[in-house]
Request: fold
Amino acid sequence: MELYIDTANIEEIREAAALGVLDGVTTNPSLIAKEGVDFHDRMSEICGLVAGPVSGEVVSMEHDGMIEEANALLEIADNIVIKLPCTVDGLKACKTLSDRGVRVNMTLCFQPLQAMMVAKAGAFLVSPFLGRIDDIGGDGMELIQQIRTIYDNYGYTTKILSASIRHPLHLVQCALVGSDVATVPFKVIKQMMNHPLTDKGLAGFLADWNARKQTECCP
Ligand code: G3P
Reply:
């Protein structure tokens, strides 16, 4: 499964990239606003740090405005992916841009038919928000499974990018059902290599090793 980081924070992206397993970055208007920076400057900075796809989202609600914003974003770097909402205008803009060979990430996907429609329109990525479905008492993983089945049934090549990840168990479940990509907050990326038994086992190994060295060197 590909791993993207879901942030607009440069330090988080640097640290995640240093792990050597980061495949891309997703941002959204809320994440950019949190940083208090110029949108295009920050996108350019991120695209310089990560070679893989970097999603930047438009804020226009209608087709023509979306295309205008997309054109400006595409000037920034070759690895820019245009993020559009799963609305009727977003679908039309997805088709317009995909027909031009532009990679599009269709975001705010909450039901399987949205995923089917954007695949038909040529989307590069679809972003189902599984955590936000769980937040209101639904089953976010069921949506990921349904999209996987529909895409496999018809050979749609749009990649499933599981988003709104809240904890490591979401990632295990995403990997088990065949999500192509997961975009993950930095806090959860840091949890991915953690297990208390690893720490406990390592402490035991080191304690035994140090005791042995003391016996050898100090009879
Ligand atoms: O960036 C899209 C998505 O991952 C947002 O997640 O945590 O705001 O529900 P969240």
Notes: The domain at 2-194 is CATH 3.20.20.70 (TIM Barrel). Residues 6, 26, 28, 129, 131-132, 163-164, 183 surround SN-glycerol-3-phosphate (CB under 6 Å).
